[in-house]
Specification:
The protein is mainly α and about 110 residues long. It has 3 helices and no strands. The chain starts with a helix and ends with a helix.
């Protein structure tokens, strides 16, 4: 039997090979993943407290600037309040974006 006949026979009977999908293993957490989640949770909590503190600090600075007629403090308080609101929006959007990227197709 020639090489050409062997190749021809192999190609004609290729449909007889078993077709099976590769198994999809379920995702397994690496060691230490729980500790990383704890640290990220602490950082998230600290960021939330800082945003709230910035907002109320801005209210205090704005009020103090208006009470004692100090225009610099009043403007700084307004900037702090607006900054805190912008950070709160980013904080809320960031959580959703990270969750979207972290989802697995299990």
């Amino acid at each position: 039997m020639s090489v050409i006949n062997v190749i021809n026979e192999s190609l004609t009977q290729i449909h007889l090979l078993p077709t099976q999908d590769l198994p999809e293993p379920s995702p397994i957490e690496p060691p230490g993943a729980g500790a990383i989640r704890d640290i990220v949770g602490y950082i998230q909590w600290i960021a939330g407290v800082c945003i709230v503190g910035l907002f109320f600090g801005g209210i205090v600075a704005s009020t103090a600037g208006r009470l004692w007629d100090h225009h610099g403090s009043g403007r700084l308080g307004a900037r702090l309040i607006v900054g805190a609101l912008a950070l709160a929006v980013l904080y809320g959007i960031g959580y959703g974006v990270v969750n979207q990227f972290a989802k697995t197709s299990a």
